Amino acid sequence: MSGYDLYILFLCVIVFTLLTVLFSVMLHYIIKLTLNSIKHGLEDERITKEYRKSQSSNVFGKIASNIITAVLLIAVVFAFAFSVAIQLSPSKVTGNVAIPKVVLSSSMSIKNKENDYLIKNDLNDQFDTFDLIFTEKLPDEFDLKLYDIVVYEYHGQPIVHRIVHIEEPNAEHPDKRHFMLRGDAVKYSDEYPVLYEQMRAIYRGKHVKFVGSFFAFMQSPAGYLCILLIIFAVIATPIAEKKLLKAKRERLMQIGVIATDESSEDSEESSDKTEAK
Fold first, then answer.
1. What is the spatial distance between Cα 17 and Cα 24, in angstroms, rounded to a whole number?
2. Domain boundaries, the chain
3. Exposure check for the chain: N or C terminus, fewer CB within 10 A?
4. Residue 129 · residue 104 · CB < 8 Å
């Protein structure tokens, strides 16, 4: 991890800590105001309507609401886990499973009119910035052919370009091929020839449009921060709801909306469920 990455991580931790403290203070203040309003009867009409509506509401509606909430939470967790998996995936594909990569460059997004070989050979496998592409294991060096799209590393950065020229072994490099690569959207080839050992994977046209922008965000410090705040909300919300629900029931008992014996039965039922768990 570079010094810049450590700095960003440190900054992210500080921001998360400050936001958590701020949200906690705000949540505590809002709950305190709401509890006082309920206690002094300012919310009687609203909480009475809520209670009667909950008594007459469809059980299947509640179940559906819980299912939707669970599905959304699972989707967020899955998206975060998938984005982390993309970030931690090895640069070189060695197995038979395709590895997804987020495209962060526009060099393969369109056909530059000066690259006439794209038209002559009907090469239509371009992809845009923030597309999610699936890279596969490289074939043997001498199985690579003209116009294949490969992933190679240059100064530690992955580049996905097309092979536009192959220099076969000769007196200068008797055992190796030299590959010249170029992005479809640019008119000049990459500065230096690429060797096979620099290559990490091959792209065979499988990609998903634009979803990479979401995963790129999830891989950023801002994305991590959002996930941490969601986790904080998931933990804090039930605690706040429990306090408010208790205050509402006590107030509804005071004004006679809920009978004392009904509340006792609900408490016993809740206690039985807790013991059963």
1. 10
2. 3-88+220-276, 99-210
3. C
4. yes
